[in-house]
Amino acid sequence: MDKALYLSALFLLLGILGGGVLGCTDFLITPGATKDGSSIIAYLADAPWLTGSMKIFPQAFHHKGEKRKIINFDSGEVLGEIEEALHTYHVMGYMNQFQVTIGESTFAGRLELLSQSGAILDYTSLMQVALQRSKTAREAISVIDSLCQKYGYWSPGESFSIGDPEEVWYMEIIGKGEYEKGAVWVARKIPDGYVSAHSNYPRIHKFPLDDPENCKYSPDVISFAKAHGWYPEENPDEDFSFAEVYGPEKGFIFPDFGVQIRFSMPRTWSFFNQIADGMEEYLDYCLGRDYSKPLPLFVKPREKLSVEDVFWLLRSHYEGTALDMTLDIGAEAFQRPYRWMPGNFEHNGKTYMLDRPIATEYTGFSIVGQMRNWLPNPIGGVVWMSMDDVSQSVRVPFYVNNLRCPVGWCEGVLDLNFNLDNAFYVFSLVSQFSYSRYNLIYPEVKAKIIEVEGEILKKAKDKELRGVELFSRHYSAGIEYMTSFTEELATEVTENWLEFFKYLFTKYMDGNVKTPNPPHKNPKVEWPGYPSKFYQTIVTETGD
């Protein structure tokens, strides 16, 4: 590879890494693995500059020859224009009017393939355009392929979760660099009754070459690698591994952001480990110690999952496992399961990594897309959205045909002008305060989440029943009814969470705990102090 192009690709990657894009986590759950038969795709968008991203693209009809401007989601740069489809579908965030849902995580991949001059489509634009043009997950895969071959693929290697009410697919794609326009890719259907996940590392190794019902791939995915010496010409196609050939080098640590097996795979393992047996045997792979036994692409859960189960599975910090982040010195005095970025550091000439759980402090927004084939599309498709750290926030249902996005929950970058109308800031008030004395404050946050989400789920069920009745008589009235429900609920949740912060702040400020003490005027004040292990460390290090 030309040195100048290599450096250009490297700088592109570092710019993306600096933005925090390489931190997303997705769950893929098939209808046969859920209690109610819905498909579910969960997507955590982890970036320290991001807030809500619930943008609405209304259904529209276009003139022949009309163009669509493509704007890079991460930088705001205009990448070019593509031909607009004659009919584009309604999209709410990352789900469309047919309940097709797409999530992503970035895996970067071979440095030689990270730069493609003249390419127009970045990964987010691909997701948005595919949703505007697809009625099924399979169609979305075809749209992504055709767009990349025609207009070029601008982004690094990407993993896509693509689902509809009937089935769920996992797709990996990477551009062809400066060698030629387009991308190579593989897509696997997740067997019904199983679940999958991805978190910034390619997951597709060998794949069936003669099963188009369950596996699709670009026709040159293997020949392109052979032509450039990444896969020996004499090796059989059946042994080809997409992850090994197109993924990042094993154990390679990029400056300031460790994107590799050790940074990425423990999150996928964490999800599997919570719901399936036998995951301990894959821990060494996920820790980057033994590459001989990769984590399976999909597993069968012990029990079927509800959408509420998924909410809580996303809140994991490896509790109760060998990676429990509340137990080592990094948790500091109050057992906080977070490690501030950057995610790697050097000591005595050796580079180390800080663990990164599913739930992290720099999540901008997250969605749990629930697709239900027994309900009308405008109600069957619901995007459960939360802001900021998923373990510190509650989810609000956004129905796929909603006409408006509630104030404070819409697409945006982080506005450094503090604004309590922005739901992201309100949830951040609680999470940031909770981080200060995690082992004392978070139990209250968790209890509050259980209470509020329980109420939201009940309200949503009641409103959906009424919505179905309305849709049967007056379609537009049903759309307005569900839109208003989301608007009112989102506003109520934001206001209530601000009141919750005020309660927590008053109770826990200044390192003590204040509680009402009737009939006395002043509250009862307690000083819980530090854990005994912390005091022991003080004595050991100071001697007095």
What portion of residues is helical?
25-40%
Number of helices: 13
Task: Bin the strand percentage.
Answer: 15-25%
Number of strands: 23
Radius of gyration of CA atoms, rounded to a whole number: 24 Å
Roughly how many Å apart are the termini? 61 Å
Q: Biggest sheet, strands in spatial order? A: 16-14-1-2-19-20-21
Q: Estimate the mean pLDDT confidence.
A: 91
Shape: globular
| Main β-sheet description | 7 strands, antiparallel
Low-confidence stretches: 1-21, 251-259
Description:
This protein has about 550 residues and is an alpha+beta fold. About 35% of the residues lie in helices and about 20% in strands. The strands form 7 sheets. The chain has a 7-stranded antiparallel sheet. Strands 10-11-12-13-15 form a 5-stranded antiparallel sheet, covered by helices on one side. A hairpin with a 7-residue loop joins β12 (about 170-175) and β13. The model is unreliable at about 1-20 and about 250-260 (pLDDT under 50).
SSE topology sketch:
Layout: H1 3-18, E1 25-29, E2 39-46, E3 56-57, E4 60-61, E5 67-71, E6 78-83, E7 87-88, E8 91-92, E9 95-96, E10 101-108, H2 123-133, H3 137-151, E11 157-163, E12 168-175, E13 183-189, E14 195-198, E15 215-217, H4 223-227, H5 242-246, H6 261-275, H7 283-286, E16 298-299, H8 307-313, E17 344-347, E18 350-353, E19 363-371, H9 377-380, E20 381-387, E21 396-399, H10 423-436, H11 438-473, H12 475-508, E22 513-515, E23 524-526, H13 532-542
Antiparallel strand pairs: 1-2, 1-14, 2-19, 3-8, 4-7, 5-6, 8-9, 10-11, 11-12, 12-13, 13-15, 14-16, 17-18, 19-20, 20-21, 22-23
Helix pairs in contact: 2-3, 10-11, 10-12, 11-12
